[in-house]
Amino acid sequence: MNGLPILSILILLPLAGCLLLLPVWHCRKSARPIALVVAVIELGLTVWLYVSWRGLSVLPTKLPGFWLLEDAPWIPAFGIRYTLGLDGISLLMVMLTAFIFCVALLVSWRAIEEKTALFLCLMLTMEAGVMGVFLALDLALFYLFWEVMLIPMFFLIGIWGHGRKLYSTIKFFLFTMVGSLLMLLAIIALHLIHAQQSGVATFGLHELLKTQIPAGTQLWLYAAFLLAFAIKFPLFPLHTWLPDAHTDAPTAGSVILAGLLLKTGSYGLIRFGYPLFPQAAQILTPLLFGLALVGILYASLVAFAQEDMKRLIAYSSIGHMGFVAIGIAAWQPVALSGSIIQMANHGVTTGALFCMVGMLDERAHTREIKAFGGLWGKMPLWSFFFLLFSITSVGLPGLNSFVGEFLILAGTMKSSPLVAALAFIGIVLTLIYMVRLVQEVVFQKERQPLDLTDLDLREVCLLAVLSLLNVWMGVHPAPLLDLIHTPVQLLLGGAP
Amino acid sequence: MTSLGLMALMPLIILAGGSVLVLLAGAFKPGGYLYELTTTLIVSALLWSVILPAEGVAPGLAITPFSRYFSAFLYGTGIVALLLAAGYNRRRGIVGEEYPATLLFAMTGMGIACAATDLLILFLGLESFTFAFYILVTIERGSSRGGEAGLKYLLNGTLSAAIMSMGIALVYCDRGTIKLAELASRTGTPEPLFLAGCCLILLGLAFKLSLVPAHLWTPDVYQGSPAPVTALLSTASKAASLVALLLFLPLLDSWRGTHDILWMLALLSMLVGNLAALAQGSIKRMLAWSSIAQMGYAALALVAAPAGGSQAALFYIVTYAAAGLAAFGAVSVLSDISELDTIEGYQGLGYSNPLAGAALALAMFSLAGIPPAAGFMGKFAVFSAALRGGETALAIIGILTALVAVFFYLRVVVALYMKPPAGQSVPARPLALSEVVALIIPAAVILVFGVYPQPLLDLLSQVMK
What we know:
The complex is a heterodimer. Chain A is built from 20 helices and two strands. Chain A is mainly alpha-helical.
């Protein structure tokens, strides 16, 4: 597009933002707007990309379905290239990333009073890493970004977190490393198998897709990839890092964890896991179904027993991501589209819920469900938004989660009716624990006299934007479905 | 010797002659600009090696592109270690010309080891820099830890030297030559006497590289030595010994047993080093065990030598050296009058000493192999070579032990940035220019080669032809 390396700019702009923060390192007042401006420009760029996609329809590039490509040799000695590509799925994820980072910066506007510039720097670095994950088409490059986004989150939880923050952040880091290190070996092994067959040393996704991998090897390699992605997802029983990390992270950290980092797992499975190892993925589909179902039911039951609001929402995330996993495992156009849409939906909805719990925590300095009650009278604005996002999370028609969950269940029903039926129970369970949460916090009689003020203008604007987006994605999801239509067809091996 | 040979040998002559010069200068003008003079000498040796393409052969020595560039790298680590030592020694009251003169002598030994073409010169090179380290380890005369470390190093070192020279004698007995090229060109099944000799040499080298089971001296010596000496001992001396191992290994090409020995050395070093490092409360001991494990990864690459492992091992050692210098550099800078040795002592220092803290954290990420630090590229090269060589099992064990390692490296980062300062906070000492430079050089190497390692890889494949 106009010869501008726009995808690289998406990655480099936040890093440049970090440099801009250096001169104002000790001045919170000017550091915050600078970081926000960078994040907003980033969001503007992604929206511009979306608008021009609508105008241009699909530009043909070397790779089908990708309408922007940037490719340059990077480390020829290892066969690694700097390949970035944008298709509909990437674009949706990139827009989500830019948006969630704006939300995260705004929600932590007041909350982070110490070492603010360092915080903002880490946020921007993480944004660059997440952008890279969603854009990389070279497996080694993907791995690099996959790891790069980890370090800022480690610091974010460890420095600005609450409670047992050190335990949580180290657990988070180690869990993620287990998966990714084994995936690294699998990536190298795949590269070597390809080099043996074709004589070309490459990590390019589209080259590696042509590799003929013997069935046994394929199973091992896929297992390594699946492990890395399942930990990020997180699938039962690899989810135990998530409640800890979410609970102890600062609000912005929880928003990004739930909104984006979990999505990198599902994105990786869609972009790399299934296409690279089709037979192995086929064989392990029942496993994926099983883990996802157990995860949905288990997480819902555990969520019901939580006393901490943040922990409850963290468990609900595991349940919702279980639906995404089911949609992917069905590997069928309707369900897969549903999963991808649901990734964006969950980012917005759960991000909003974490923001709201963070706002409450800033005022009351507690997140215990039992501490609140009767907020409808005291904080009507907060209660209104909380109710809205809670019923979204349950999947009320007209709001965004409904679209995703409906498509996932409708698609899965065709191939595996039993799975769809069991997953449906999960929705019912979600309803139960979310209604309990809302009932206890918003409608119950006041339990303790807490001095609470309602939302201020910044918070209302933030939540209003999130709600509008939520309703828009729920009422009129067609543009998003159009966006991912072609890539989904291509992934499933059909004609676009 | 031709004039060309003299030109080629000039870096070695500068260093050896410089060593004597510094000793003399110290006698006539104590407390003069000895560190400045020494730095100038090593820098000129480095520049000569890199810039002038003078190559030639002397008895027992061959100055080749490989030896030129690799010795230049060793001189570079020497410069950083010297810059660190300048401030550190002043604070500790380590005065006199002995330190810089001995360091120059160590550099000479390393330069010789890189260029050796026969076993005896190789041995002399190795032993002369080890000899220099015997002195450097105990340079702080009042320190009882230093004395203990020096004695342990000396006893173990002389034992390994005796073993190695016995090995060389056996090899000479059997083949009647000590020239590496002639020894390597012989094919066919090697004789038992020759094999016995080679195994003894291998054991001696394993001691220098502190590969398990010849590693026991490492933690005590690393902990007892002054930090700038440990910085050099854990990087340059390891790198020079690795080069010696690379020069020696072709002798055993035709013997299948080499593979098994290296396999065991790599396995044990990765396992023992990483597991023992978990339990350390002292940062220097932790880094010592971690360096044992890191040498295990280098050995893992050598197991797969036919599949391009040698190049991977050299690349790995360069990335490791940068991280080691940054880590021990930070320890030197942060240690004031007494050594800052416990990991708890580093709590909160990331904020009060931003540069040293950042260098230490970066070094930890690099040693843990997390991008965008160079250590990741090093691990990438090693594991690619291992898988290409068909060492899948060893690679999987290696990656799992690397995971264990992440935990203890993170402990340091956690202490630096996520824990409140222990005890009363001492205002940070402003860093001298030499310390700033000595921290920035390795940190820059870590970042640059972590993002763009291609130039170094190109250079390596060029000089290893």
